Inverse folding.
């Protein structure tokens, strides 16, 4: 309106449209439109007062809002202006608007023409936001952000990383860590590291809805991951998930992640995870912690040290074990599988779903609330931890009949039987184990005395084998079973 007022003032002084257009650096059509409006309202009379900006704006917009448009530059949607703008205000999709125009008015323009028209003609709906205030020590906000690709100096491995960031909502002091994944174990460990970094615990932790923390996202009642819920109980903080698809509710950590990615990550070299984290922690304590924050206009580290640290909840006397939990079905081989390692459980629970409690040094198996097995934690894929009592009786009996058991049983039969068994094991222990087991079972059919005599006879002939001894027993003593 200031520029239009200048045009009206020059026109009142008698300047031509060409002169005004040249002086104001606008088109002559624009000056002609202003002259037409001013003449109609009697603003060009030198004796009449100039109108205020609101009056000029009202008449100017009523007359078309600006310079006359060239017909060749008009949008093909222009004839349907009011209808299209009204549909757009109702939230109807642009593609649906174009289809309605074609159906009702035979419109032949493209959907992109409708997009361009709305972009230039339809006023955007403003989105208002509210600045949230938090008490000292009340809340921390947590998020992941993509990190740098790191090439390990020693192994040459190239791997992707993420930034874990926890920002205290009042002081804006933060903890940051470079990690290799977003697993439950990593999520829990990073929380512990952050609390130890702050030497205290906030009363609430606001999070997004990552799978490592929330197993079922919901606006009203999200379901918290079991391990994370136990961590919250151990450290006495309340989990505060954001509404689904509304990350603005944790804007302070969102800004913190962007700050780390934009100010720490560029122009640095990382030779491994430990090297990256050493640099990151030094940067948080120096540059990031001592910057003048854009919102508080104070230094985050100073606000934290002077005020917030003392008002955080104290760390527990004994740090929680932070186990992770997983569900697994007990297979027919009496083992469950976790991270490609196998752990046994009682055979009576075959095909049932069990809970696994995983800690760095142990794995516990629960059936509902009953602890049914404890194993040392395995890390090499394909390894197995088996407790023989978990196996069915026939399997236990099979595994008990090892070479040592066979020698003990042969000694009970007699010296000749013991000599035959030792002779068989001397040849090839693994190949002869089943033959020895079959030999000892002959005592159930023919009796120990007759079996030892048959073994003695086979030794005399120099042919001590299961087949020879069985033939001797059948040939000389028949098939009569001796009790």
């Amino acid at each position: 309106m200031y520029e239009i007022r200048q045009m009206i003032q020059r026109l009142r002084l008698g300047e031509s449209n060409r002169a005004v257009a040249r002086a104001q650096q606008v088109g002559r059509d624009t000056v002609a439109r202003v002259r037409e409006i001013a003449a109609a309202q009697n603003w060009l009379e030198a004796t009449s007062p100039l109108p205020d900006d609101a009056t000029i704006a009202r008449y100017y917009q009523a007359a078309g809002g600006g310079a006359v448009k060239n017909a060749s530059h008009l949008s093909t949607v222009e004839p349907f202006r009011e209808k299209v703008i009204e549909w757009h205000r109702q939230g109807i999709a642009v593609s649906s608007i174009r289809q309605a125009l074609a159906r009702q008015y035979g419109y032949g323009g493209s959907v992109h023409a409708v997009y361009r028209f709305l972009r230039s003609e339809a006023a955007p709906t403003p989105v208002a936001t509210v600045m949230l205030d938090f008490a000292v020590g009340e809340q921390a906000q947590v998020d992941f952000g993509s990190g740098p690709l790191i090439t390990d100096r020693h192994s040459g491995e190239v791997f992707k990383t993420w930034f874990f960031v926890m920002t205290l909502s009042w002081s804006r002091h933060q903890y940051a860590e470079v990690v290799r994944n977003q697993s439950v174990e990593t999520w829990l460990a990073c929380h512990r590291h952050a609390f130890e970094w702050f030497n205290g615990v906030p009363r609430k932790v606001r999070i997004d809805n990552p799978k490592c923390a929330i197993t079922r996202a919901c606006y009203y009642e999200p379901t918290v991951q079991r391990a994370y819920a136990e961590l919250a109980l151990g450290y006495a903080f309340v989990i505060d998930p954001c509404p689904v698809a509304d990350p603005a509710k944790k804007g302070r950590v969102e800004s913190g992640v962007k700050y780390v990615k934009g100010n720490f990550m560029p122009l640095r070299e990382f030779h491994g995870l430990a090297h990256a984290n050493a640099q990151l922690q030094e940067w948080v304590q120096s540059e990031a912690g001592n910057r003048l924050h854009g919102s508080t206009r104070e230094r985050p580290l100073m606000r934290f040290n002077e005020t917030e640290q003392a008002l955080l909840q104290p760390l527990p006397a004994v740090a929680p074990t932070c186990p992770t939990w997983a569900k697994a079905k007990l297979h027919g081989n009496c083992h469950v599988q976790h991270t490609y390692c196998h752990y046994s459980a009682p055979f009576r629970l075959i095909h049932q779903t069990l809970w696994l409690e995983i800690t760095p040094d142990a794995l516990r198996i629960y059936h509902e609330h009953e602890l049914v097995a404890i194993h040392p934690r395995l890390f090499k894929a394909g390894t197995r931890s088996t407790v023989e009592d978990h196996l069915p009786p026939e399997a236990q009996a099979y595994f008990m009949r090892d070479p040592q058991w066979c020698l003990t049983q042969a000694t009970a039969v007699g010296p000749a039987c013991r000599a035959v068994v030792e002779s068989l094991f001397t040849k090839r222990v693994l190949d002869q184990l089943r033959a020895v087991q079959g030999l000892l079972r002959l005592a159930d059919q023919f009796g120990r005395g007759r079996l030892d005599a048959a073994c003695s006879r086979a030794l005399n002939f120099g042919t001590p084998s299961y087949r020879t001894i069985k033939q001797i027993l059948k040939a000389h003593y028949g098939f009569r079973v001796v009790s």
Remarks:
- The longest strand covers residues 139-146.
- Residues 66-72, 478-483 have pLDDT under 50 and may be disordered.
- DSSP finds 18 helices and 16 strands in the chain.
